[in-house]
Amino acid sequence: VMATVKGDVHDIGKNIVGVVLACNGFDVKDLGVMVSCEKILSAARDHKADIIGLSGLITPSLDEMIHVASEMERTKMNTPLLIGGATTSAAHTAIKIAPVYSGSVVHVLDASRSVPVTTALLSPDQSGNFRTENEVRQEKHRLAFSGGKRKPTISLADARANRFHGGWETYNPPVPEFTGTRAVRHQSIRELTNYIDWSPFFHAWGLRGVWKNEEKILKTQNPEQAAEAGKLYLEAHEMLETIIEQNLLKAQGVFGFFPANADEDDLVVWTDEDRAMERTRFHSLRQQIAKDSDKPHYALADFLSGDTSTRDYLGGFVVGIHGADEWAEDLEKQHDPYQAIMAKALADRCAEAFAELLHHRARVAWSIESPHQFSQEELIHENYRGIRPAPGYPAQPDHTEKPLLFDLLEASEATGVTLTESNAMHPGASVCGLYFSHPESRYFGINSLQEDQIEDYARRKGLSRAECEKWLGSWLGYEA
Questions:
Q1: What fold, for 180-257+284-448?
Q2: Element at 161 (helix H, strand E)
Q3: How many helices (H) and strands (E) does the chain have?
Q4: What ranges do the domains of the chain cover?
């Protein structure tokens, strides 16, 4: 029995695992997405499941997985539990999930590992050794976590004192050609195909390497995977033509610019150019891992001027691709799971391509890029100025910042994209983020957040410390 846990809508990886297992003789019951703990455990009992598999992409899913494991323990189940998905890891599984369940809990890295793992768990000859080895590996993760093998950190005050300084004394931020929002309700899918980064598409299918668009080849050390990627690319383009000819997918987006300035680690959006009345306020987090003295401790707020007399601006966007879920469901009913997965995988690529295209338009509107300045390869490699960090990702891992962005852009009305209770976007083929124009703005990672910053962050957001710890659990540098 497999499911994407409650609050999460992403299922491409899970679906690929399901197909791989089915092709290897396993009877797979896929419960779909946003599945409650009660439904998962009920289905496992009804089907007398040998194994339960949980999947999730967004970080709140990790807590839901812990909840499912706890309920399995409470109800005295002993069914092996598999954990997978982009947000999961062997370390988190060992440290947070395995301790709450006395049965076997195994992290599965990707679809290629699903058959060996399930086979070993169910094999009378292999099961004992496999489970023991899994427990030994997990104990090593726990010992490493509790044994002080963590990178040294500094206080929030010291991190702020070592912030990135944007050269505001001499730097004048660009002024966008408009403020407010612009909706894109009928974006051409064909235009989006010019902005697709194909490498992640192949990664979703377990084919590792870098796609070279001009050569139409996957650069990899594995010739068999390169050949498979070539076939997959042709099949993907056939499906894209079908999508375009039959209008099977609909792309909608919205983007905008707003007067904004930094206030310590917050991003203040103003109602107008007077910059006297707040419209909304985003909250950034600051790096706290100790660094060499010449390397700053970044927060996204560093890329906005803190002086309200400086006319600086913050941008934002939301894009969504509609129709893939319904189409994939029809394909499933036609007993064609391969095409169903392909449909969702291409919708995901189109959503990312739409984000790339809209960011290009935003930079042109900001006068920091000309319309034809960069090639497709240069855009994919982000050779341009500016960044578009997304809530829930390394530079700002807090998903609760998404509702602020959606409200500011009136995104659901403009795009049809909505948020689940865990702040996952629906449909799954959706992307959102902020735009920064500073020439030295860059992506960075937040990790090992300390108690002083969580206390400060909770105060700024008007949440309890416990709520912040729940949403930022994977990024905490202490035991909550």
A1: Cobalamin-dependent Methionine Synthase; domain 1 (3.10.196)
A2: helix 156-161
A3: 17, 14
A4: 2-146, 180-257+284-448
> CATH homologous superfamily of domain 2-146?
Cobalamin-binding domain (3.40.50.280)
Q: Let me know: does 420 contact 293? Beta carbons within 8 Å.
A: no
Both structure tokens of 182: 């612009």
**β partners of residue 149:** none
3-class SS at 230?
helix
CB 258 within 8 A of CB 313: yes
Q: How far apart are CA 75 and CA 69, in angstroms?
A: 10
Instruction: Give residues with Cβ within 8 angstroms of 202, minimum separation 6.
Output: 208, 209, 211, 218, 229, 232
- What pTM does this model have? 0.91
Q: What is the DSSP letter of 29?
A: -
Residues 318, 252: Cα–Cα separation, whole Å: 9
Task: Give the three-state DSSP class for 67.
Answer: helix
Q: Which amino acid, 472?
A: L
Half-sphere exposure of 242 (CA within 13 A, CB side): 13
Q: What is the DSSP letter of 418?
A: E
Q: From first to last of its 480 residues, what are the pLDDT tens digits of the chain?
A: 999 999 999 888 899 999 999 999 999 999 999 999 999 999 999 999 999 999 998 888 999 999 999 999 999 999 999 999 988 999 999 999 999 999 999 999 888 889 999 999 999 999 999 999 999 999 999 888 777 667 899 999 999 999 999 999 999 999 999 999 999 999 999 999 999 999 999 988 888 899 888 888 899 888 899 999 999 999 999 999 999 999 999 999 999 999 999 999 999 999 999 999 999 999 999 999 999 878 999 999 999 999 999 999 999 999 999 999 999 999 999 999 999 999 999 999 999 999 999 999 999 999 999 998 998 888 888 899 999 999 999 999 999 999 999 999 999 999 999 999 999 999 999 999 999 999 999 999 999 999 999 999 999 999 999 999 999 988 998 887
Closest CA to 19 of 2, 5, 40: 2
Report the largest interatomic distance among the alpha carbons of the chain, rounded to a whole angstrom. 74
User: Would you state the structure tokens that stand for residue 271, as one six-digit string?
Assistant: 């109602």
CA atoms of 400 and 387, how far apart (whole Å): 20
Ramachandran region, residue 306 (left: φ > 0; alpha: ψ -120 to 50; beta: rest): alpha
- The CB density around residue 112, as the number of other CB atoms within 10 Å, is 15
Residues with catalytic roles: 8, 10, 61
The C-alpha atoms of residue 288 and residue 150 are separated, in whole angstroms, by 12
Query: How far apart are alpha carbons 480 and 465 in whole angstroms?
Result: 10
- CA angle at 91 for the pair 87 and 151, rounded to the nearest 5°: 100
